[in-house]
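Now for one specimen:
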Amino acid sequence: MSKRPEWWLSVLAKIWPITWISAQATQSKIIGPLVEKALVPFFSKKNLNITYLPINITIAPQSTPVPLLIVEEIIRRSAHRAIIKRCTCRDAKQCTEHPVDYACLLMGKGAKEIDPRIATHVGVDEAIAHLHKCVDDGLIPMIGRVKIDNLIWGVKDTGKLLTMCFCCRCCCTILNSGKYLPQEAASSIVRLKGITLSVNLDACTGCGTCVDECFMDAIRIVDGKAVHNDTICKGCGRCVQVCPHGATTITIDSIDTAIEEINVRIKQYVQYE
């Protein structure tokens, strides 16, 4: 069992702004190269491999959003589950949009080591209920290997800790700094297989709401219409969520293929069962 007293969560909230500052500092011509050299190894390759699961996709005749279908299965297969008591990102920014206790779900044998003073150890049904609660509140699930979480939560790095975050655009570190990440780190954010974003040009007014909300800077207004850059879009679905005119839609080629791909990829980095 790790040793992380309850006050550890308060310490994290105090120091967390460093993560946002560091990402933006990579753009500096003076210190950028040094910051990038120091940070990239921690946030790329085998140390980071994550995927955002858009809450907007449903597959007929299913009415359940795709992320729930994927994550519910992973929760059921996981050897253990623990819900962190406070979301560090929202705690650090004193978020008023989403509850601070809608926090990360850690899975796998490594999650069993997390100190119960900072996390609630739960069964399958409780974990699934937490998932639904977060998604219903509009949070975007992110799942994958985040090596630094082993250090943060005091878990020995044996490749058995799977992270599931529930991210808000207002506070999430990556959703606030993805566009600043060096290419090597940005490539560790992997788009869910088979996702397609499309814009109804008749409905799009070019208001720019989606442009402002895109964390990867993957949308531009061209000739008065929103245009997506698929090479850098991470498929989080935020643009669909915020479009005031319902002009943007997100679809997926095959839910079965998407589930298989993400399961195979995750297991390359984390043995969570």
